[in-house]
Amino acid sequence: MVGWRVGLACGLALLAGGQPAAAAEGKLYETGPSVVSGYVRFVNAGTVAATIAAGAGTAVLGTADGERIGTFQAVPARQPLTATIGMAGQDGVVTVTVQPDEFVTIA
Question: Considering only CA atoms, which of 37, 50, 60, 55 is closest in space to residue 85?
C-alpha cells in the first residue's frame, strides 16, 4: 500500500511583500529505471514566490492559481533528500526521506 505523508515546512511563513514569479519546474533529483523511488512535490503556501533548489535543479512556485503546486517527481527512496527553499529574501532548509512508492508533499 502506498504511504501518504504531508511534510509541512511552514516555518517559511515569514512572508513579506515580494514579486510573484511564473511557475517553472525542472527535475530536482536524479532518478532512473534502476533507482527505487518515492515521490515528492512542493506546494507554495505563502503570499510570495518560492524558489526550491535541490539536487540537480531549481523550481519556482508562484502565488497565482496553477503556480502554487508542483508536480510529483520521482526521487531516490530511503535516502535523505535536502532542499533549500527561498522566500522574500530568506532561505530555509528541509530534509525528507521517502519510502518506495511513498508520496510526500512539502508545503
Answer: 50
Read off the pLDDT band of 34 (50, 70, 90).
confident
* CA dist., res. 69 & res. 63, Å (int): 9
Quick one: DSSP state of residue 33?
A: T
Assign 42 a pLDDT band (cuts: 50, 70, 90): very high
26 Cβ contact partners less than 8 Å away, ≥ 6 residues apart:
56, 57, 58, 59
DSSP 63: S
CA distance linking residue 33 with residue 24, whole number of Å: 25
Q: How far apart are CA 60 and CA 86, in angstroms?
A: 9
H helices of the chain, in order, are none
**Residue 59: beta bridge partners?**
25, 52
